[in-house]
Amino acid sequence: MSRFTPSKPLFKDSKAIDNYVLYNFGQKPTSGQIKHYWLSIAKMYFSVENYSMTAEFLFRLILISPQNYEALELLGTTYRKQGQLSNALEYYERALSTPNAPQTLAHDAAELCIQLVKKQKEESEIKNLMTKALYWIERKRSLNNNKYDPQAVQLLQKIYVILVRHAEKQLDKRSCLKRREGIPPVVNIKWIDESVKDLISSEETLIDPLLHILLTKSLLKIQDYQRAWKHVMQRRYNFVDSLEWNTFVKTTFPKYKLEATIDNQKEPLHEPTELIFFANDNVVRLSLNMS
C-alpha cells in the first residue's frame, strides 16, 4: 500500500472536524489557507474514514497546487480504499510524475495495474495496463542499483502468469474460430511474446521453475515445439536441483522428441535424447536425496 499511514485521530468523528474547520477558516478560506492547511485537514477526515470529505479537501488543494505529491498520493490512496482502482492509479501516476518525486508508489501503481487487468477484456487495455506495470517496476529498479527487490519479483511473477495465460486464451479463441469458420481471426499477441521474453531473461532473481513449466506448457499447447525445446535446453542447468522441473521434462518431452528440429529445417536435434536422460538422472538423484 501507499506509504501514508494515518495517525490516531485528533477528532472523534467528522462532525468535530467540520466544526473545527468552520471555526478556524469560515465559509471562504483563502488560497493561502488552503495551500497550507487543507492537506492536514484531509488527513484528519481520512483518519476517521470519511473518504468523501478527504477527497473534497484534496481536490481544492490540488486545484491550487497541482504538483503536490502528498495530496496526489493521499487522493490515490483514498480512491483505493473505496475500491475505485482506475482513479487510484491515475493519482498515483500523477504523484509519481511530479518533479523529484520519491518512487515509493511505483510498486503500488504496478499492483493496481495487475488488479485492473483482471477485469479487462479489450486487448488494447490489457496491453496498456501490463506495459504500465512493467514500466513502474523497471523505474523503481533503476533507482535501486538495477536490482529487483522482493516485492518487485512478486509483481513480475504475477505479470508473467497473466501474460502467459492471456496468450493461451487468445490462442484457444483463435483455434476455436478457425475450426468453426475455417479462417483464424486476427489476434496480435506479439506484445505478449516479447514481454514474456523480457521477463524470463531479466534477472536470476526471477528464475522460478514452476513459472517456466507454465510457459513451456503454453508453447506445447500452441504446437510451437521448436521454441519449447529451445526453452527447455536453455534452462537445463538452471533447474538441475528442481524435482518439479526435471519430472516435467522426463514425463512430458519423450512424446515430442521427433518434433525438435534446428530452426525451420527438418534435421532432428541430437540434444533432446540427452536432455531427457539428464532429466531422468536428476529425478532419480533428487528422489533418493529426499528419501
From TrEMBL:
Highest rank taxon of the organism: Eukaryota
Gene3D superfamilies assigned to the protein according to its UniProt record, in alphabetical order: Tetratricopeptide repeat domain
Keyword Chaperone: no
Family matches, as InterPro entries: TPR-like_helical_dom_sf, TPR_rpt
Keywords, alphabetical: TPR repeat
Residue ranges of TPR repeats: 69-102
Listed name of the protein: Uncharacterized protein
Protein's organism: Rhizophagus irregularis (strain DAOM 181602 / DAOM 197198 / MUCL 43194)
